[in-house]
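Following up on my earlier thread - several people asked me to post the actual chain instead of describing it. Fair enough. Here it is, all 1006 residues.
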Amino acid sequence: MKTFSKRALLRASAAPAILGASLIATAAFAQEAPQAAGAEAGDTIIVTGSLIRNPNLVRSTPVTATTADQIELKQNNTAEEVLREIPGIVPSVGSAVNNGNGGASFVNLRNLGENRNVVLIDGNRLVPAELNGLFDLNNIPLALIERVEVLTGGASTTYGADAISGVVNFITKSDFAGMEANIANQITEQGDGNYVRADLTLGANFDDGRGNVVFSVGYQQSDPVYQGDRPFAVSAIDSFSGASGGSGTSTPSRFTNVNTTGADSITTGCGEAGQVACNAVQGNRQVTAAGGAFRPTSAFDAYNFNPFNIFQTPFERFNMYAAGRYEVSDAVEVYSRGIFSKNTVSTIIAPSGAFGIAVDVPLSNPYLSAAQRNAFCAFDTNPGVGYTARFTQAQCDAAATAQPTLADGTANPDYRTVSTVLSRRATELGPRISDFTTTFFDYKIGARGGITDSIDWDVSGAYGESENVQTQQGYWLNSRVRQAVQATNTTTCLDDSNGCVPLNIFGPDGSITDEQNAFLNADSQIITKTSLAQVKGTISGDVGFAAPWASDQVAFAIGGEYRKYGASQVSDLLSQSGDLGGAGGAAPNIDGGYEVYEAFGELILPLVQDKPFFQDLTLEAGIRYSDYKIDAAGASGYNTTTWKAGGSWTPVDGIKIRGNYARAVRAPNIAELFAPLNTVLTNLDVDPCAGSAPAQNADLRAVCIAQGAPAALIGSITNDPAGQVNTTTGGNLNVGPEKSNSYTIGAVLQPTFAPGLSLTVDYYNIKITGAITSPTPGDVIDACFDNVTAASATSEACTVIRRNPATGELFGEAATTPGLFQPLSNLGKLATDGIDVSLNYNKDLGFTNWALAATGNWTNSSTFQATPTSINRECVGLYSVNCASIQPEFSWSVRNTFSFKSFDLSVLWRYIDGVKYEDGDAFVGTLNGKDVDFNTIPAEHYFDLTGRFHASDEVTITMTVQNLLDNQPKVVGNSIGSTSYNSGNVYPSTYDALGRRFTVAAKLRF
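Reply from S.P.:
Thanks for posting it. Predicted structure:
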C-alpha cells in the first residue's frame, strides 16, 4: 500500500478561466497542474471541481490560480480584495460598503448573487456567517494561502447545493516547515486609511516525515476613510436634480399638514370643490430659527450626510489557523484542521432622528413660540377659499397654558393637541454607529488511507459556529420622541416614565440638549448565530483497467455526505420593536435549520490516447442525489438530483478542445425559509405619486388614493430625499430549490514553437430557472404604474403598495407604512453568458525574466426576471437601483513582471469598460462650474506598481503603489443606485475612492 508520506496533496483548479486573477503572473492548466515542493511523479493531485485524485487525467475545464506570490505583489490585505478585482467577478459587500454592510465580506461570481456560489478551504465547506448561508471572507487566513482557485458554472455534483455560479477554493500551504513572519503597513496619499497587517506562521515535520504541524496567527487593523475627506464626496449630490449640499431630513423640524393659511388635511375644509386652492398652499411646513413661525415650503431642508459616511470601514481582526497530520501506519493517516477568527467591522452613518413619525403636540408645549402655536391652530386668515381652521384664535390662546386636567382631576376643556408628522435630524446626538463583532471557529478531523495501491478512502467530520454581535449606538427612539413632545413644562413630561425629559423640537439646530438626547437614545443589540455540522466519506481511485485505445485507467469516486445547518437571529426588544429612528426597520427573531443526506459518484473515462489526431480524448461524468429535511412544523422536505458531463480532446500537442455541461441546484437558505414578513428599506429614485402629476390625471390620482394617500395631499406628495422607501418582504417555507443548466466550451493553446506561451479561450453560459427571487423596486412600480387606467385603482398590482396614511409618501414608520411589496417566490429566472480569455507568457531575456499575464472577460448578457410578468432586465454595462453592483461588458487585467537577480519590478494594468444609467434620465448640466452627465461612467484604467527586493534568502522587502495615477471616481450623485454600492456620489466598490496608496511590507523566513 502507498504511504502518505509520499503523497503531496496538490490542488489545481478546474475553472473555465474567468479568472486568472488580476494578479496572475503564471497560470496553471489541469493537464499541467503545478507541483508543490517535494512532490514526486505519481503523487496525488486534488482538482477543484472533481472528487477524483489522479495526476495523469486531463480535465474538461481550465485551471487558473491566483498564487500567494501575486497576492504579495498586489499587497492585498483580505480575501475580499483578492477576489474583487478579478475580471468577471462583480464587487460584493466588503470594505467599501458602509450603509448596508453587516460586518462581513462576500463574493459575487458572474453577478448571479452571493448566495449562488460556494466558498471552500482546501475543498471543504465552512460554517456560514449569516442566515443567507454566505461565508465571510474576513475569516480566510490569507498568510497561509498558497493559491486561490475559481471555478465558474454548476458544481453541485461535486460540492452539493449552492454551487450554481461557481466555486472559490482557497488552498492552504501543505507540509509547511520553518518560520515565516510578515508585516505590512498601507496608507493613502491623503494620510488616512492606515492599514496594518502582521502574520506569524510556524511549521515542522516530525517522526521522519510521518507527521507535520503548522500554526499561524495574524492581526489586522484598518482606519476609516471618511467621505468628507475626499473632494468629490464632501457634499451629497442628488443624481436627478444635480442639487449639491445634501438631501434628506435636517433641522429645523419639518411638520406635515401644517400651514399658516388654514389648509389642513385632517379637517373637512379641503374637499373636491376647493382642491386646487388647497393644493396651492397645503403640505409640509418647517419652523424657522429662533422659534419663529412656520415657513411656507413643502421642500425638505437639505442635510449633507456625506461627511459622516465612510469609504473604508474600520476593521480589526485576530485570527489563528492550525493543522496537523500524522501517518499512523503505512495504510492510515489521521489529520485535523482548526480555524479561529475574531473580527470587528464598524459602520458609521449620519445622525439618527425622527423620520416622518406621527406625534401629538400639546398647544401648551413650553417650547412653542406664539407664532408657531398660531400656525398649528391655523385659523382662517384668508376667507373665501374654503378652508376650515383647526381652532379659533380664542381656543388657541386658551390652550397656550392649559394642562390636561383641572385641579379637581377632571379633563380640561381648554387643553388641546395637534396631530402632525415630524421630521427632524438629531444633529446634536452625532452619527449612528454599528459595531459588528464576529467570533468564528471551524474544526475538522479525519482519517484517510489506501485500500489498494490505486484506491483510497477518506472519512472526515467537521463542525463550525459563527456568532455575530451587532451593537447599535446613536439612535433616537421614536416612542421616546413622542413621549418627550407630550409636555407642558420644561422639566417633566405628561408621561414621566423612564425619566422622560421634555424635548425642544421647535428651535434651531443646537436646541436639543445633552440631557434631552440622553433620554431619547439607547443602545440595542442583535445576535446572529450559525452552525454547520458535516460528515463526509469517499472512496476514489482507478478501477484497474483502461479502455482499449487508452493508456490511463478509468478513474472513479463514490461517497456520501451529511450536512446540518442551523441559524438564528436573536434581537433585544428594542431592535425587535422597530423603534430605532432610521434603523431601516425592525430586526425580528428568526430561528431555523435543515439537514441534507447525499450520495454521489464521479467517473473519468479516457477513451483514446496517443493516436493520430487523438493525442487524448477523455470523457467525464458525475451525479449526486440529495434528500433535504427542513426543521419546521408543517414544512415538507424535497430531494434533488444533479449531474455533469464533459470531455476534452487533444488532437495534437499544444491544442486542446474542452467542454462541460452541468445541472446544478441551489437549496433555499434559512433566511429564505424562515424570515417573517418585515418592513425594511429599499431604493427608489422616483415615486409616480409624487409631485403634481396625480393632480392632473384622474386615474393616477385614484391609484394613489387607493394605496392609502390622503385625498387632500394629492399634488403635494414628495419623493424620499434620500432615495429610500419602505418595502415589505420575508421568507417563504413553500419555496423549493432552484435549478440551473450551465455549459462551457473552449480551447487551450500551448504552441511548441513558443515555449512559455499559453492561451485559453472559453465561452460560458449559465441559466437559472425556478430562481428564489423578489421583484426589484422597479418591477413593483412598473407593474402598477406602467399603464395606468381606470381599473388600476382596484388591481392587486397597485393596491399591494401601501402608503403613509398621514403623508401619502412611501416612507415613514414601518408600523403604518408597509411601502412596496416584494414577496419571495420560485418564479424568477437569471441568465448570463460571455467569454473568458487568459494569456500567459514567460521569457528569459537574459538580463531579466519577463512574465506576462493577461486575463479578460466579455460579458455578453446578464439578465434577471423576478416573475413572469416582470421585466427581463439586462444589467450588463448598466447601473441603477435595479442593477445594484456594476457589471461592465469588458474588463481585463494585464501584469508584466520583470525578475532580476535580487529585485522584481511588476506593473498591473486593470481596465473597466464604460457603463451607463439604465433609464438615461439622470442629471445633465453644470455643477461647480463643470459640465457633468450622470448618465455615463467612462472606461477606467488603473495602474499599480510594485518593487520587491530580496535582501537575502531570509528577508524580502516589498513596496507597492496602488492607483499609481491617482484616478478619481466618476461622480454620478448619491441617489442613482442602491445605497450599498452607490455612496459618496460614486460607486466605491467598483471604482477606487481612496486614491493613491502606498504599502511597505517585510517578510522574514527561516
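Residues 679-728+777-821 form one domain. That should answer part of your original question.
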